[in-house]
Amino acid sequence: MSFHKNHWLLFSVIFFGYIALSWIAAIGPAIWVQDHTRALPGSAPMTPVERRGLQVYIAEGCIACHTQQVRPLKMDAVWGRPSAPGDYAHLKPLDIWQPYAPAVLGSERTGPDLTSIGTRQPSETWQYLHLYNPRAVSPDSVMPAFPWLFEVVANAPADAVVVPVPPAYAPSAGTVVASDKARALVAYLLSLKQVPLRASGANNAAAGTPVPPENATAGAEGATLYSNHCASCHQANGRGLAGVFPSLANNPVVVADDPAPHIATVLHGAQGRTIEGMTYPAAMPAFADQLTDAQIAAIVDHERSSWGNQAPKVTAKDVAAVRKGEAK
Amino acid sequence: MAEPSPILSADRPLVVGKARVESVGERDTAWTRLIFVYLACATSWLIVGTLIGVYLSIKFTAPDVDHVPWLSFGRLRPVHTNTVFWGWTSLAMIALVLYVVPKTSQRRLYSFPLAWISLALINLAVVIGGLCLMGGINNGGQEYREYIWPVMAIFASGVVLTAYNLIRTIADRGVEEIYISNWYIMGGFLWTSVLVTIAYLPFYQQNGISETVIQGYYMHNAVGMWFTPIVLGLTYYFLPKLLNKPIYSYSLGVLAFWTQMVFYTMIGGHHFVFAPTPWWLQTVAIIFSVGMIVTLAAGTGNFLLTMKGSGRTIARSYSLPFILAGVIGYFLWSAQGTLEALRSLNLVWHFTNYTVAHSHLTMYGFVVFLIWGGIYGLLPRMTGREPSHLLAGVHFWFALLGYFIYTFALMVGGTLQGVSWILNAPFIESVRLMAPFWLWRAVGGAMMFLSHLIFAYNLWRMRPLRLERTMPVAQMGALA
Ligand code: HEM
Ligand code: HEM
What we know:
Chain A is mainly alpha-helical. Chain A has helices at about 5-35, 50-60, 115-120, 125-130, 135, 180-190, 215-220, 220-230, 230-235, 250-255, 260-270, 295-305, 315-325, and strands at about 150-155, 175-180, 275, 280. The radius of gyration of chain A is 24 Å and the shape is globular.
């Protein structure tokens, strides 16, 4: 009897040996993980609309470029706290053709991690516009445009979600409105928010701040912070997008001597103002929960001293004062 | 196969003269036709799959080239990977396997109809699978298992039928020993049958992380337990045959075989280093990734020592350079994978385009080159018809230079991406800085694609002619 001469012996060892090894390396751990994963307290199961959105996310292959997985590394802190197994407990098989949890963790980060995109970019208008054509808001983006998730109509019905597309990207005639698929997809994206882990150990993010304040590097650079949090709407050159997001260059609120309104806008967001004779359909999100006083001071300073703006410096203390003063 | 003749070299002023193949066509025309049709189908998938690859790489430079849903990047990318995996690489491998297994077992293939059915099934799976993916129907986005289960079942039945066909052939072999090639080849078929079953059974992948555990295992086992063992097995046949001398060490081959089975199965977790999968699973995967050096050294050392002293034969052959490049690629690019698995380096390279470079270095620079070496080594001896030596050389150099440009651009760019993230630069910087590297990738990719067109033409030149050939019995031995 030898492997060289007895093919049944050889093939059996190959076959059953591999099954045994696969139990150790894959099936066993998978069963263990499946049985020991609990949804995080405070997390909600997906709503039917969000599930439909996830289906679009999978069908369009967004996972080819986007991860949803924050590693316990300093370089990943910009995306949120480190991911835990419980974060994925609500992911369930979508239908009979894909009877497995969808693979959202991803393996390539050509585009940003989307673990907490719902916190980072809560503006629906921005999301729609970005999906309609990413270049409209992010000129250097390589993300595909998804115009087939939208319809072009002559007269938008009252309940339609109208997307304010800048002229350069708009269809020659008609109004762009979001289809059901786009609405579901955006609902899914906005639902992507990290739930705080309960206070325990080093990975404590009990404060619920997706950007841990100890992330010192991100705290230092106003330009970087601006680029990460504001440039998607107000653009790198500060000029915004005509009719969609206001310009901050030479903007009265930004260059005013008193920084309080500027700081308050960043802390609490804004909607429906008339800015230099224009009103804007989109809302400005609030950043009070996401950014520390020092970070907001750095951003505000950056805005007050860029694109030709020249206004006095602000400090973290100024931000703290506004935060206190207005949070009654 | 006969030794390349030192006398009958093609007389070409510009390039090194390549030795002509002396032996004549295979007498078993049914066999020749079967293998040629397999190769023709495979090559069609190569052209389709890499045309899509080139198109994808253009999309990184011109994301708005089209706004057609079916051609959108996210949908087309898995069409590229699955077409080159299951259409091109798998069919081409099976074509060569259908030659090597009967040859080393010294009997005819057990069943020709079964082989034709397998071919039809696999082609069908790739067609339906590709259409589904473009239509937005996929298996939850799980990389390399994007085909939904009914489609993968078609593919898997092709694999299982072929495995059965091969087992019956080997079981009735005309020699006592099972040649080492057949260990690797049957390993590939049996492991893959198990692998696909495990990957597609739903019970233990019902929530996020359990699915991830299976995904990691599946991803590297698909490349490590299917493509890798089978092309290695083929090389254990073609290399000694083309050099006309025995393999350096049979036992090194056996050692590499068993370590391949044990180590490679365990390394899947390295795809999710730092992920919330069990930490011990990642550590085990990293340790075995380092252990893979043993397998690599045993395999590559064995091949290189076999080639030692045959430099002239290699230079004068048009198939052996492919094999030499593939063998060196096997060592270098797998060793690169070991480095990528180490936590300190993984944090720089993971998620970046460096991984894409590794994928192409291994799948292309190792697997595909060995397949081409096998095809150029085999077909002329089966059909008695040779490709133009010059064009075979052009194919080699375009493919080699093309994939060097492609992957070096992405290795440099991918490293810069990782560094920019470590430095906490705004994310969009890592997109901007890739622009020139993505352009170079498209250039390298276009060269690779051009070489595939040349290869397709060469394959056509090697096609069997309808004429029934008769040959002196004395020469038949040359083929055995
Ligand atoms: C010693 C052997 C090898 C080791 C240790 C190894 C290691 C790795 C690691 C660590 C990754 C993950 C990189 C990351 O995501 O950061 C990877 C990815 C990959 N490897 Fe290997 N590799 C080896 C050999 C091979 C071979 C021989 C092939 C092809 C036949 C291959 C094909 C791939 C592919 C296609 C991927 C990309 C998977 C994805 O889509 O994310 N590797 N390898
Ligand atoms: C003309 C030649 C080729 C070109 C231009 C090309 C291009 C591409 C592109 C643009 C991607 C997407 C990368 C990304 O998502 O960032 C890709 C992925 C991939 N290609 Fe190719 N490809 C070619 C040939 C091949 C061949 C022959 C194979 C295998 C036999 C192959 C295997 C893969 C794999 C495994 C991936 C996934 C990479 C990963 O996830 O890490 N490619 N290719």
